[in-house]
Amino acid sequence: MANAFYGQSGGVTATINATAAAVIEAVRAQPRVIEKVFVGRNGIIGALQENLVDITEESEETLAGLIHTPGAAFGSCRHKLQNPSAEHDEYQRLIEVFQAHDIRYFFYNGGGDSQDTTRKIAHAAELVGYDLTCIGIPKTIDNNLPMTDCCPGFGSAAKYVAISALEASFDVASMHQTSTKVFVMEVMGRQNGWIAAASSLACDERGLGPDIILIPEIAYDKVAFLEKVKEVVAHKGFCVVVTAEGLRDQQGHYLSYIDTVDAFGHGQLGGVAPRLVDDIKTAFHYKCHWSVCDYLQRAARHIASQTDMDQAYAVGKAAVEYAIKGLQAVMPAIIRTQSVPYQWRIEPVHISQVVGGEKNMPRHYMSKDGFSVTQAGRDYFAPLIAGEAYPPYRAGLPDYKKCRNRLVERKLPEYFGKKCIQPASEPA
Amino acid sequence: MANAFYGQSGGVTATINATAAAVIEAVRAQPRVIEKVFVGRNGIIGALQENLVDITEESEETLAGLIHTPGAAFGSCRHKLQNPSAEHDEYQRLIEVFQAHDIRYFFYNGGGDSQDTTRKIAHAAELVGYDLTCIGIPKTIDNNLPMTDCCPGFGSAAKYVAISALEASFDVASMHQTSTKVFVMEVMGRQNGWIAAASSLACDERGLGPDIILIPEIAYDKVAFLEKVKEVVAHKGFCVVVTAEGLRDQQGHYLSYIDTVDAFGHGQLGGVAPRLVDDIKTAFHYKCHWSVCDYLQRAARHIASQTDMDQAYAVGKAAVEYAIKGLQAVMPAIIRTQSVPYQWRIEPVHISQVVGGEKNMPRHYMSKDGFSVTQAGRDYFAPLIAGEAYPPYRAGLPDYKKCRNRLVERKLPEYFGKKCIQPASEPA
């Protein structure tokens, strides 16, 4: 009998709490193996600071409501651990905390950087001979983890952007004769076009949805883009553009200037849509409108995909099963066995196969001219947005739950490791 | 027996087609009074150009689906008619078209400018002695029409921004310890803060929802704003700001119209949200994120308010009833008789009482410091977002309908009035 740690890490999603709920429920279903789940307050920082959430302090109603609540119920973080082969003070501290609370199972829920955290902790535990079963759990709206067909969180973001692009196209179609000719919608995706490309699901034979999709994997060619905008406007009277925030020019420079850098060294982007609108207005004097979805697309639990919800829950449940089976340093991956009708299963993959990789969109998901998504791409995306997992409502608003996040009593002295409470470096 | 004209005008909404459906259904229910409805393709421009949609060419499925489809199904326009007492060529043309199609009922669905169109046409018909019953129908997400408690279209936009602000606050709450401290969401509202203020419904005793709301009616005070941001971040660790696009400084200048040029010589286009983020970053170096909702907020039929849907339908139905009763130059207005539980009815008001007026938010709906909404304001907004009028879905996307918009055969020569296809002059 021992306890488990669960942490949420990196940029949050509409469905990460469904994974949390699955982990908590799966542990409770195995009371003879794992006694308690301690949840890190703000992910791994909670472990470093011994800020462990006592979930027995949460009401059953709150825990049941996790499944339909966006964001990270227990707090997330962007924190890069040191390399376990160099300095060791963070790992010593982590092991001390785990030991103090008899934590022998470590579950960490996040994207690529978070899987790296799990890998490092497994390595560090091995180095000092501390018995710790480490399981990574996938989550990222970016959909860029290798070895898994898709990532929990992505399907709901994809559904949100496809619906938004569809709705915006109805709006612009209404207005174009005397007003707006071009609408540009900016979505997330620093390195990959997964989210932007998913908006293609709104395209149909009726001429709705995005006419042009711009992704980071294909360099922005201003001349070709403007030619395409002109052609679409001439043909149908208006043009809807969806662009990823990470769009780059032929020299590889982000169109949107980088003004801050996070803990992992990633620049914070924003503002490609107004840049493109600038190019279009300068060339054609069309009236344009633009939107930047930003957090709204990853927090939009109100229109979560049921497929995404099912998968977010399934990876949490599988993670606990793997731990109980004694698998080490694995991540539950989603394996697609069939697209139509959609079939999938969960399989363990070794975390070392996930870390450091970055799954770009296959080039054949995009048309030859690079502005639209092929049938192969649409076949990939379609099942991921299927089904509407509506939350319950109260007084016109989703009845999202907020955890109390009461902490368990500390057993160790305070930790003053210099890295542990510093915010991500932000030169602003 | 005669025919009716119905037109959609101005910026569109998530629920204007519910009004169209109501007008069409109400006319069909009175086959002994009004024979046919001719719908203007792009509003009044359709009448000028004799581009009249033959709704009998639309399938019953499409007409039934209008009620859950955003945008203007028949096209909208921004077109300002001449003054009927000055030149008359547009009015001569309109009367000719109405005469050619035996149109004796005129329904026009829009905001303040569209009500003005109805008033002018009623006046012009009177001047030339053409018997034409003219009814204005309210619609605007801006909620700024006088004489009506609220405007169809607003409740759904309000629901969208309240839900989005709520969801974003869950996201930022998750991330703030090591990442984003401030999130700024920009919503529509050039002159009025109705939409921005409605986001206050997301605020509750749990500290969620927007912490600061900025509206055009209250001049932006940079010092006070930054002080408030700092205070909120110090108190709860993060801050969510909702701003109306029409925010102005103490001199009355729009913040968003001030262009800046970056180091590369690229003009940074408007957008109040990035401007505010700039101020915050410069002062405090907080990591910030921002979004611009733009058209997404007024097209978001996927999360329409049931109250709004009911009212959008009711004003369309009432308009036809008023016409049949012989009322002239009136608009169905929504009269609130009680807030809790919410009760309302529809009453006719004379269009001359609506035209030219602009309903700002009452000052007492905002707190003394101008940054939050009072209980009086929340009592006003709360019933307008009640209920979720979900559209049907197909393959993960709303099953919105697109009209064929086949035109009836023309009876008149083409019209070359110089104004009729020019775009309305508008700030780009």
Automatic annotation (TrEMBL), chains A, B:
Its EC number is 2.7.1.90. Keywords: Cytoplasm, Glycolysis, Kinase, Magnesium, Metal-binding, Transferase. InterPro entries: ATP_PFK (IPR022953), PFKA (IPR050929), Phosphofructokinase_dom (IPR000023), PKF_sf (IPR035966), PPi-PFK (IPR011404). The keyword Cytoplasm applies. The active site is at 142 (proton acceptor). Pfam families: PFK (PF00365). It catalyses: beta-D-fructose 6-phosphate + diphosphate = beta-D-fructose 1,6-bisphosphate + phosphate + H(+). The record marks 139 as: Important for catalytic activity. It comes from the Bacteria. Substrate binds at residues 140-142, 188-190, 245, 295-298. Residues 8-321 form the Phosphofructokinase domain. Its cofactor is Mg(2+). The keyword Membrane does not apply. It is an enzyme of class 2 (transferase). Diphosphate binds at residue 11. Pathway: Carbohydrate degradation; glycolysis; D-glyceraldehyde 3-phosphate and glycerone phosphate from D-glucose: step 3/4. Non-allosteric. The record marks 113 as: Important for catalytic activity and substrate specificity. It is found in: Cytoplasm. Its main location: cytoplasm. Catalyzes the phosphorylation of D-fructose 6-phosphate, the first committing step of glycolysis. Uses inorganic phosphate (PPi) as phosphoryl donor instead of ATP like common ATP-dependent phosphofructokinases (ATP-PFKs), which renders the reaction reversible, and can thus function both in glycolysis and gluconeogenesis. Consistently, PPi-PFK can replace the enzymes of both the forward (ATP-PFK) and reverse (fructose-bisphosphatase (FBPase)) reactions. Belongs to the phosphofructokinase type A (PFKA) family. PPi-dependent PFK group II subfamily. Clade 'B2' sub-subfamily. PANTHER family: ATP-DEPENDENT 6-PHOSPHOFRUCTOKINASE 1. Homodimer. This is Pyrophosphate--fructose 6-phosphate 1-phosphotransferase. The lineage of its organism: Bacteria, Pseudomonadati, Pseudomonadota, Gammaproteobacteria, Cellvibrionales. The gene is pfp.
